[in-house]
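Thread title: Can someone regenerate the structure for this chain?

I was given the following input by a collaborator and told the matching structure tokens would be attached. They weren't. Posting the sequence so someone can regenerate them.
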Amino acid sequence: MATRTHQPHVFADQILKQNSLLKDALLVIGGSLVVALTAQIAIPLPWTPVPITGQTFGVLLIGMLLGPWRGAAAMLLYLAEGGLGLPFFSGGAGGVGVLMGGSAGYLFGYVPAALAIGWLAERGWDRTFFKTALIMLVGNIILYVPGLIVLNAVFPDLDTLQAGLIPFIPGDLTKLALAAALMPTLWRFFGMGKPEKQDEKTG
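Best answer:
Regenerated them for you:
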């Protein structure tokens, strides 16, 4: 009798768990597609192999919206999709060669950047525009570190800062501010508003 009493609850728990896993999978896939879409906004620069793209904008938003683990998983899936040949990298590029080129460090930097942004957001750092902008700045710094290291290793004759950092600062600051300004609207649109009890824990 005890088994029959608890069996419906077991089934209900299994259904809820399956729905949760499906939701997580869809969010991760959707996040990878958002980054792939923003990557198609690309402006090549004649003095560097690294183009100006909208990718970092997508990475910042996805890391904030999906949290650390789903955000990082979305970035890993994005790298896998592009590495398998889908035209998901900047300018419609794809293939393993991109993951071995001068801009590869930035691409791999998306994973720890999304992880850090999501981790800080879960701890209440996305409550105001300025805090949101600050954690997104942290994410930008995190992805630039491997980006510059790999760029210097692949193209040692280039001025690394001029080729991989300085020209991108104005655009990155603009994308950072835009992403921070969009966050309250995105939370409401996706029905992912922060519960008040979480504010009490973090505040």
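The two ends are 47 Å apart (CA to CA).
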